[in-house]
């Protein structure tokens, strides 16, 4: 039996992102399953690296019940981050570069060493150098921001852009810090880091394990986005976005047309 056309599917997703044009879901038509979807993701990112981009981290997706409910899937997933996706804290991006961008508040970790997928949870303490508040911009390449689990995995977990705020030492407790998402000074989402698999450190362990299953190991100096603490909010031109995490501070960005 002939399997899904990995290169062809990756090409469709790259073209959708480049043109800013949404496409129909692909998994049902192509027979894409989770393993094949991660192969598509790898091919998609490989093409970005061929353009001169560099891998700078890993991101988790669907780590909160709010996110699972919002997109209609029920399994934790992971994707890759490149330097072209990173926006400086307080910087700006063009909404027109995306199809239907949404923003969400996150917690970011800075890797101090390469963790082993098989090491115990306690390894987090020596693997992570610092923590920071962050904003992720997600942008599904599928019409109506609707997709199956294999679809979103293939689409690099809807990765669009990200902002990392000031790094700080990892506090003793990360499991129940208050989180706010503000748009133009108005609070639009309120949450807690407990929404990220109960504790963002647990998301880190899951990311190391799941990526390791596909032969990917996190590297020293990489950024790790642990997942969203609230549902995502649509981003409109002219908006000023700020994510605030208790004890960690804030990260911000501005949206141009």
UniProtKB/TrEMBL annotation:
Domain Fumarylacetoacetase-like C-terminal: 99-251
Keyword annotations of the record: Lyase
Lineage: Bacteria, Bacillati, Actinomycetota, Actinomycetes, Micromonosporales
Gene Ontology cellular component annotations, sorted alphabetically: cytoplasm
Transmembrane segments: none
Organism annotation: Salinispora arenicola
Gene3D superfamilies: Fumarylacetoacetase-like, C-terminal domain (3.90.850.10)
GO terms for MF: 2-oxopent-4-enoate hydratase activity
Protein name per Swiss-Prot or TrEMBL: 2-oxo-3-hexenedioate decarboxylase
One Pfam family recorded for the sequence: FAA_hydrolase
Domain of life: Bacteria
UniProt key word Lyase: yes
């Amino acid at each position: 039996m002939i399997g899904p056309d990995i290169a062809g599917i990756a090409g469709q997703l790259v073209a959708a992102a480049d043109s800013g044009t949404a496409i129909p879901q692909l998994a049902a038509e192509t027979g894409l399953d989770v393993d094949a979807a991660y192969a598509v993701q790898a091919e998609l990112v490989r093409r970005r690296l061929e353009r001169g981009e560099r891998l700078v981290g890993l991101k988790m997706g669907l780590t909160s019940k709010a996110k699972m409910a919002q997109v209609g899937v029920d399994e934790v997933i992971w994707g890759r981050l490149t330097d072209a996706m990173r926006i400086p804290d307080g910087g700006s991006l063009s909404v027109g570069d995306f199809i239907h961008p949404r923003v969400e508040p996150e917690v970011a970790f800075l890797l101090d060493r390469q963790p082993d997928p098989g090491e115990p949870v306690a390894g987090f303490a020596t693997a992570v150098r610092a923590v920071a508040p962050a904003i992720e911009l997600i942008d599904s390449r599928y019409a109506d921001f609707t997709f199956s689990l294999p679809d979103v995995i293939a689409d690099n977990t809807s990765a669009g852009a990200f902002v990392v705020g000031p790094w700080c030492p990892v506090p003793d407790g990360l499991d129940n810090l208050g989180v706010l998402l503000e748009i133009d000074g108005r609070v639009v989402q309120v949450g807690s880091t407990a929404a990220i698999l109960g504790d963002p450190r647990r998301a880190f362990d899951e990311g190391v394990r799941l990526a390791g299953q596909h032969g990917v190991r996190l590297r020293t100096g990489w950024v790790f986005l642990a997942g969203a603490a609230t549902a995502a909010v649509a981003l409109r031109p002219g908006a000023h976005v700020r994510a605030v995490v208790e004890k960690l501070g804030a990260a911000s960005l501005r949206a141009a047309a």
